[in-house]
Amino acid sequence: MGPTDAQKRYDTRTDLGNTPQVDGDGKLYLGRTSGQLTGKGNYQAFCDWCVTRKLNPPDFVAKPDLLNNDPWEGLVPTWYWQSRNLNRWAD
Known about the structure:
mainly alpha; 5 helices; 41% helix; globular
C-alpha cells in the first residue's frame, strides 16, 4: 500500500534529516519499531547514541531494516526518551 500523499511528504522532510530532493528517503527511513523512528537524521542520531554506549550497532542509515531486530527495536524508545530529556516531565 501507499505511498499516500501524506507519506510522500516525508521524502523531502529536511527537519528529519532527509534530503530536499524527491529521492525515496521518506520510504527508506519510514517509522520503524514501537517508537516509530522516522527520518534519516534520527536513524543516524540513534546509531550515534548506540556507539557512544559501546553497543556496536550496525549502520542503520545504510541498512535501516536492521532496526527491527533485537536489541535495537527495544532501545529506540529509550534513546528517544533520553535524547528529548523527557524525564523532566515524568519527575
